[in-house]
Amino acid sequence: MTVQESGLVTARTLQMIRAEIDLRSFQHWAGSRQMIGRQTFDEGYAMHCFLAGVFGELAPQPFRLIIPRSKGNRRGVFYGYGRAGVEALRGATAQFADPLQARVLPGSTLEGKPMPATWKAGTRLGFELLTRPTIRRSKRAATHQGTEWDAFLWEAIQHPKGEMPRGREEVYKDWLRERFRRRGGAELEEARLASFQRTRVIRRRGSRPIEGPDALMSGALTITDGEKFAQLLARGIGRHRAYGYGMLLLRPPGKPA
To answer: Which residues form a coiled coil (predicted)?
Structure first.
């Protein structure tokens, strides 16, 4: 069913959506669809499937899941950018969600706001970004690692053991600076690696997990082109944007370094 056929209307202005997630119901739903393995539960992949099943074309993307790791916590938070407003998403939930899905992401917790329609060049903004800083290489170059490499590990293997001149944070900063340059709209002013871990993710049901970097970056950017920056927000940064990575969460800028 298309958006038009369902009678649900999208907004022209980019919308920022927030909702609460019932984590136990989310795990129950994912488990009922065999998305939880003995050693792997890719929450981003599960949410991608959940959003497609409930919202279809209206699903916010890119999105970000914030899930507290404290024991016994039952609530997480979902953020996303999309063209569908809160009423359209609530309408989709009422029409298409089964009772378990309605408990995972209750329509009553959905909130939203329109993002600015225009952005002024020269504006400085702070940001937070969860990303997978990877690069693609040919199958011949990738060998056993696959075609997607951790940007830091790829640079490290170009040097003799113990002679890597740069640290992980510096490599990831350059990786992010290049992504901004490619997409246009903003330039990276400063960034730091707030947290890092290696995680295993699923991209197709039944496929083998892919291990890679999970990096939380924060910093400041300067808008260079307002129209392109709006497109950058709507699209996200890096790969795996459909699975919980690449959403720029904006914040007031700190003092210049």
So the answer is: none
What pTM does this model have?
A: 0.88
123-251 folds as Alpha-Beta Plaits (3.30.70)
Give dist(CA 230, CA 221) in Å, integer.
14
Tokens 């998403």 belong to 89
Domain ranges of the chain: 15-114, 123-251
For the chain, what's the residue count?
257
Q: What is the pLDDT of residues 65-122, one digit of tens each?
A: 999 877 777 899 999 999 999 999 999 999 999 999 999 999 999 999 999 989 999 9
Which residue in 68, 70, 85, 69 sits closest to 18, CA to CA?
85
Instruction: Tell me how far apart the 2 most distant CA atoms of the chain are, in Å.
Output: 61
